[in-house]
Design brief:
Blueprint (H helix, E strand, L loop, with lengths): L5 H4 L6 E4 L3 E5 L9 E5 L11 H22 L3 E5 L15 E6 L11 H5 L6 H11 L3 H16 L1
Antiparallel strand pairs: 1-2, 2-3, 3-5, 4-5
Helix pairs in contact: 2-5
Length: 156
């Protein structure tokens, strides 16, 4: 655990969806679309190769369940799932974390190219993006609902 890592220091309660023994699941602070979720190992690791076999299995279980829940609650038509490894790839927090980004019809004029189309132009008008991030944050009631649904799914 790293004391200078925002994920290790703790996530704001209003963003937290799940805190398990191996992973945290929470709403991204700068969501590019409504329902943009992060799945983060509790252990402070920086490389994908550092995940244990158990962590890899749990990660895919959490991603699968989150997709199911987000489909039920937010009704997206698709998803981008990914991670940034290294500063040159856009990683800003040196603690590996996985993005689950719901995609909605019309969220970009042409979705070909996947994730590139969600974030293209992000460094243009900063005021616009701050407004978009604020607008894309889920209200606390939705976070609580998603959290409850994930807890129920993990008990199955």
């Amino acid at each position: 655990m790293s004391s200078s890592c925002p994920f290790c220091e703790g996530v704001e309660k209003e963003r937290l969806i799940y805190a398990g023994d191996l992973f945290l699941v929470f709403q991204d602070y700068y969501p590019v679309n409504p329902g943009h979720i992060l799945v983060v190992p509790k252990r402070h690791i920086t490389e994908l190769s550092q995940l244990t076999t158990e962590e890899k299995l749990r990660f895919f279980e959490l991603v699968e369940k989150m997709i199911k829940i987000l489909k039920e609650v937010l009704h997206p038509e698709g998803f981008n799932i990914g991670l940034n490894i290294g500063k040159v790839a856009g990683q800003t927090i040196e603690h590996i974390h996985f993005h689950i980004i719901p995609r909605y019809k019309g969220d970009t004029p042409d979705p070909r190219g996947g994730l590139r189309k969600v974030i293209t132009g992000i460094w243009g008008d900063r005021t616009y993006w701050r407004e978009k991030w604020t607008k894309n944050r889920l209200p606390s009631e939705k976070i609580k609902l998603i959290s409850k649904m994930l807890s129920q799914e993990l008990k199955r």
